[in-house]
Q: What sequence folds into this?
């Protein structure tokens, strides 16, 4: 879609927030980027700390905006219907903006206030709407919503400034009972820059709460999680990208295959697992290049794969990500600007569609770039950025670490995600190794699969591997199973209620609510009456899964 470069864009920044200075710096960057992109009518509007609006702010004044120098440019903004600005002193019309770009950080800018104002005045604006901004800004409210919908998150405690100031030690006790250090203390309704502190002990916690309370009456304390503690050079984790041996399995199983990456993002599909078999990666850097192969278009098949398998080039010599081209050409002594231009043309597919520009091939040849490399570049339709590949592989490697070292935690999380996609059928998945093997082979032998069957096959492969490693599912239990999470119990995984095909979250949470307070049921009849969202079909499924144990159907007693 072509954007109108003549749009008058009102970049609104500053504001009566604790993050005034941060907003000005951000606005300076955005105004510069808009001008560089060719937008002709960028109109910076500075809001002073007292809430008065001023504009247009000169480009050079945006980063350190001071309203004292703009008394003659105070605005009345806007005049309905939308976007008309007038000078507050002369009432002269200054112009009308077509779209607002709000860059006010923290209160009044990111919390829905400004968005509601623009909505009321019918001014289009950039970013989330009023409701999304409000929920996203209030950290406690957002966390409470995530909790209500059972979305996994780190532990947290909400604190009222009044309670902290009037009973400090009791509040500290409450937090230490619920969370472990390190913790992060934040104002609930401010941005991500001001009033935030990481605390390691009680004294620091007290100081952090006092600091956050300067900015908000509602505070949040979150437990810290350091994902970086998982080493990215762990040899056993690296090993599963070449072999299933680190999982205690052999490399000759026809279902698991020659790697251990089933269920690992980026490397769990049949396509990427075969790529691992072909390349045998021994280092993190190779995994990054493989991520580039899999996300690019015309990068692996018919290109890098052929070069590697024929011995023409090693994995590290081929192009995986867009950055590889520029860095390699510079290393051959080519001009940095030309190297960048070639990279940009290749990664956008321009070379594949229209060939190299005049002189490019000759320049590469003069600098010793091999013909196979030049030919490879000419085939590429799209290249992935290396920064994205690194981020994806870091995430994948950390998940793989859990698969090797904390397998039940890994499978619990993986099966939870599959169940959220309606791709875990407890009746099918919990019957043991032999049944799972037969079901996988049955599906693989079908000429075509439905989308549902393809999803189930992906889950079945992970269940098969789970069983092959010696793990089992515990019988589903009316009184112990969670609504949505796979719980670790005595070395087994206890499936949740939603793992039953057709039993949705509403019914699952109804079951959990009905047993609240330790309530037990004497019959299926009583259970049905207590849980109106659980249908007769659901009850029959629960019975078939063993979740109801020996519970009789009726509450009536027979004397004969």
A:
């Amino acid at each position: 879609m072509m954007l109108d470069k003549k749009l008058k864009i009102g970049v609104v920044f500053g504001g009566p927030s604790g993050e005034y200075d941060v907003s000005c710096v951000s606005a300076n960057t955005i105004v510069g980027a808009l001008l560089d992109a060719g937008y002709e009518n960028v109109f910076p509007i500075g809001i002073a700390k007292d809430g008065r609006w001023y504009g247009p702010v000169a480009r050079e004044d945006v980063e350190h905006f001071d309203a004292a120098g703009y008394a003659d440019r105070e605005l009345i903004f806007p005049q309905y219907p939308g976007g008309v600005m007038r000078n507050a002193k002369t009432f002269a019309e200054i112009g009308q903006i077509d779209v607002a770009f709000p860059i006010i950080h923290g209160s009044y800018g990111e919390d829905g206030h400004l968005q509601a104002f623009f909505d009321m005045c019918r001014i289009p604006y950039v970013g989330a709407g009023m409701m999304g901004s409000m929920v996203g800004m209030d950290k406690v409210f957002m966390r409470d919503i995530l909790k209500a919908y059972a979305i996994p998150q780190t532990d947290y405690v909400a604190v009222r400034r009044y309670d902290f100031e009037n009973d400090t030690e009791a509040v500290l006790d409450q937090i230490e009972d619920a969370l472990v250090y390190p913790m992060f203390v934040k104002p609930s309704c401010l941005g991500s820059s001001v009033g935030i502190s990481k605390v390691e002990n009680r004294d620091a916690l007290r100081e952090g709460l006092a600091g956050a309370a300067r900015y908000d009456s509602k505070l949040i304390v979150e437990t810290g999680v350091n994902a970086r503690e998982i080493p990215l050079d762990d040899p056993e984790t690296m090993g599963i990208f070449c072999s299933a041996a680190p999982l205690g399995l052999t490399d000759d199983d026809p279902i698991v295959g020659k790697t251990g990456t089933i269920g690992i993002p980026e490397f769990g599909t049949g396509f990427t697992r075969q790529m691992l078999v072909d390349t045998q990666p021994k280092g993190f850097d190779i995994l990054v290049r493989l991520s580039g192969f899999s996300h690019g278009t015309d990068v692996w098949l018919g290109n890098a794969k052929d070069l590697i398998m024929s011995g023409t080039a090693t994995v590290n010599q081929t192009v995986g990500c867009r950055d590889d081209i520029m860095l390699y050409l510079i290393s051959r002594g080519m001009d940095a600007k030309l190297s960048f231009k070639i990279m940009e043309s290749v990664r956008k597919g321009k070379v594949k569609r229209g060939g190299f520009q005049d002189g490019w091939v000759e320049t590469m040849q003069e600098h010793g770039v091999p013909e196979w490399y030049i030919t490879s570049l000419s085939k590429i339709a799209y290249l992935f950025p290396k920064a994205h590949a690194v981020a994806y592989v870091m995430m994948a490697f950390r998940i793989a670490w859990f698969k090797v070292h904390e397998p039940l935690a890994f499978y619990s999380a993986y099966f939870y995600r599959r169940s959220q996609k309606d791709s875990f059928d407890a009746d099918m998945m919990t019957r043991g190794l032999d049944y799972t093997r037969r079901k996988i082979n049955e599906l693989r032998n079908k000429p075509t699969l439905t989308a549902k069957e393809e999803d189930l096959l992906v889950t079945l492969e992970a269940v098969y591997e789970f069983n092959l490693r010696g793990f089992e599912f515990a019988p589903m239990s009316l009184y112990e199973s969670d609504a949505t999470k796979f719980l670790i119990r005595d070395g087994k995984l206890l499936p949740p209620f939603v793992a039953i095909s057709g039993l949705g979250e509403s019914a699952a949470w109804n079951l959990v609510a009905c047993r609240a307070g330790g309530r037990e049921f004497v019959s299926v009849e009583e259970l049905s009456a207590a849980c109106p969202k659980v249908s007769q079909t659901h009850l029959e499924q629960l019975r078939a899964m063993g979740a109801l144990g020996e519970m009789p159907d009726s509450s009536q007693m027979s004397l004969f």
